[in-house]
Design the sequence.
């Protein structure tokens, strides 16, 4: 009796996995479209902003042009 239950569960899991894989393969390759987001029609310039680095020197955002930049702003309340 227990073997049939395990076999049935294994079959259901295999069918679910196969269906999930087929949905992923059929999904739109564009991550923006998949997330329901729109791309900007053209690039726009970043504002003239600068922040101090850990040593206190002013660093302009424009100095990172062409590079990936991650800015992490946080606070404690």
Sequence:
């Amino acid at each position: 009796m227990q073997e049939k239950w395990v076999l049935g569960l294994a079959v259901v899991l295999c069918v679910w996995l196969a269906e999930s894989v087929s949905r992923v393969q059929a999904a739109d390759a564009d991550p923006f479209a998949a997330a329901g987001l729109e791309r900007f029609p053209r690039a726009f310039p970043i504002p003239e902003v600068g922040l101090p680095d850990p040593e206190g020197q002013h660093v302009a955002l424009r100095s990172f042009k062409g590079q990936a930049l991650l800015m992490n702003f946080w606070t404690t309340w």
The first strand starts at residue 50 and ends at 52. The mean pLDDT is 80. The CA atoms of residues 7 and 13 lie 10 Å apart. The first helix runs from residue 2 to 26.
